[in-house]
Write a structure and sequence with these properties.
This protein has 358 residues and is an alpha/beta fold. The protein folds into 2 domains: 1-100 and 281-358, Isopropylmalate Dehydrogenase (3-Layer(aba) Sandwich); 115-264, 3-Layer(aba) Sandwich (Isopropylmalate Dehydrogenase), CATH 3.40.718.10. The chain is built from 11 helices and 12 strands. It has helices spanning 16-33, 47-53, 59-65, 85-97, 162-179, 202-216, 229-238, 250-263, 302-314, 318-331, 347-357, and strands spanning 4-12, 37-42, 70-75, 102-108, 126-132, 136-145, 153-159, 190-196, 222-228, 245-248, 271-275, 281-285. The strands form 2 sheets. A 10-stranded mixed beta sheet has the order 2-1-3-12-11-4-5-10-8-9, with helices on both faces. Strands 6-7 form a two-stranded antiparallel ribbon. Helix 5 (162-179) crosses helix 6 (202-216) and helix 10 (318-331) packs across helix 11. It binds 3-isopropylmalic acid and manganese (II) ion (MN). Residues 254, 258 line the site of manganese (II) ion (MN).
Length: 358
Amino acid sequence: MSKTYKIAVMPGDGTGPEVINEGCKVIDAAAEKFGIKLEKTHYDLGGESYLRTGEVLPDSVLEELKGFDAIYLGAVGHVDVKPGILEKGLLLKLRFELDQYINLRPVKLYPSVECPIKNKGPKEIDYTVIRENSGGLYTGIGGLSRAGTKDEVATQQMMYTYDQVERCLRYAFEYARQYGRKARGIGEKNTLAMVGKSNVLTFMYELWNRVFAEVGADYPDVEREYYHVDATCLYMVACPEMFDIVVTENMFGDIITDLAAITQGGLGVAAGGNINPNGVSMFEPIGGTAPMWTGKNAINPLAAIGAGAMMLTSFGEEEAGCAIEAAIAETTPKMKSQMADAMGYTTTEIGDLVLSAL
Ligand code: IPM
Ligand code: MN
């Protein structure tokens, strides 16, 4: 009997619905091909629905979402909604409430995709960033005092508990063991590089470094490296081939994955997953709502399709996930560019190309 997975589909705003449409088309076809069942429930959340109802994420909906196998998210954001409301009220709230403590961001340059780094190709740009997704500066501790005076003080604290660090690093070591270069048959060893700022954030990295060594002792098959975050930005451009699996705290991970995204061809191709290994995970294209291209059938759906592949893989349906990735790799050489309106095809045509490759 084929297994049924329940997916909450949340297309959101802007070009979100257009790319999620293509993603659904592709995951449905993969499901049929590999004998799995996807039961999709549509949720209308985002800027439009907030402006209409005054509510970002009703508690009842949050409760419902806990009953799904995964969430498939397009993009949220609206020009008429103050920055922060949707980010904090929807995206970050889902990450926190569903305890999606890992943000998994593969950095993979697909064949023929234009890379802004000279002399680097798919062989050099092929690594994964594991971003801690529940703590750090995103915890939201801080405030303003003596506001409006010259003595005004603004604080925003970076905080981590031992548990948060430990579970993140354990996930990263497991991931490196399973998907590192050696495990994938393309290298001599599996390497996990921790990225931080131990020369300045001394308290933070006393904890992270200690736990890195402690958890790492359980993984003799994974080689450990450490790099400062500023140097990492330099290496990601100068010698991206040195990275295999990278793990880092929340804000550093946010920043370096935008840099990583452009090295893989931009936000049109970059996919990510907010993972709770024991709960409900949420998959999304990393890009935003692209208001300029909304409704024009011009946006690149590959990131959303890639996020769909990650979702199937997270269900344990690796064959289906890999097949979609292979179909993306067959599609990129046919495209003129990965940028909106310059692909040589429309959004729906790109979806069709992936479908036929599949
Ligand atoms: C991301 C985004 C979010 C983040 C914003 C929209 C809150 O930049 O997913 O990388 O900072 O995590
Ligand atoms: Mn970001």
